[in-house]
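Input.
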Amino acid sequence: MKLNLGCGEDIKQGYLNVDFRKTHPLVFECDLSKFPWPWKTNSVETVMMLDFLEHFKMSMTDVLMSEVTRILAPNGEVIIQVPDMDILSSAVLCLPAVPCNVCGSHFGSEDDCAGGCLQTRSGLAKAAFGRMYGGQDYNGNYHMAGFNHLTIVELLKKHGFRGFSFVEKEH
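Output.
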C-alpha cells in the first residue's frame, strides 16, 4: 500500500489519497491528528507527505513521525516535501542569491527578474510569504511549523531514518 497523506486536491494514481477533507471522490477522509492511524503496523510501503508536516504544531511532528515509523514496512520509503524556511526567508529579505520562483533566473540589481518573466522582488516576497503561512483559503490551510534542511535531517534521524536524499524543487 502507498499513502499520499494530506493530499488535498493532489490525487496520485497508485496511492490511497488521504485528507481531513473530502476534496475528491478518490480521497479517504481521515483526521491524521488522531492516533493511532487506521493502518496496521509495517503495512505501508510508501508514505508520501507533500506539504503536510507544516500544517501541524511543531510539538506534534514527533508524534506524526512516530506513527509513520509504525505503519511503514521494513525498507519502506518516506517522501517529504516542506517549505524550506531558509530559502523563503532569503526571498522575503530579497537576498540576491535567491532564484525566481517563476522561471529560476536570478534578480540582478534591478527589482525585476533577469529572466524576463515579469516577476518582481515584491512578487517573489509575496509568494514566499504564501509558502510560509499557507494558502489560508479554508480552515486548516495554514502553517504552524517551519523546517529547513537541518531540522528535517534532525527529525528523520530521531525517528531512525538513514540514507535519505534531498531533491530541490522550485515553487
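The radius of gyration is 18 Å.
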